[in-house]
Amino acid sequence: MTRPHRERVVLSHRRGARVIRTRVEVQEQTQVGDALVRGLVRAQLGLALRLAAVVLVAVAAVPLVVGAFPEIAEIRVAGIQLNWLLLAVVVYPVLYGVGRLYVRLAEQGERDFVRVIDDEP
């Protein structure tokens, strides 16, 4: 009786030495790994500063509009001054939205960083 031909079963494809070298460079904090990590930190800092500018404009817009049009401060809706209502209706949702956007974009940047290290397409 003849034996069946043996087949090698591979669960995943080997990615090569480049992946190992890149990951090791980051783990051992070599110059290349340090440059990659600094790039990630710089990208996240840039994102934070851009979104902080959006928040600053949104928060500063309410007092500027009230200062330009003082009659807005005298308008009352349900017993509440319109400028306070604008703060509650405009600024807080903007803060929440910018926070959610920051988390989503920061996580996307981290995923891109991991792809660079793992050398995935």
UniProtKB/TrEMBL annotation:
Keywords per UniProt: Membrane, Transmembrane, Transmembrane helix
**Superkingdom as given in the UniProt entry:** Bacteria
Which sequence ranges are marked TM in the entry? 47-70, 82-103
The reply to whether Transmembrane figures as a keyword in the UniProt entry is yes
This one is known as: Membrane protein
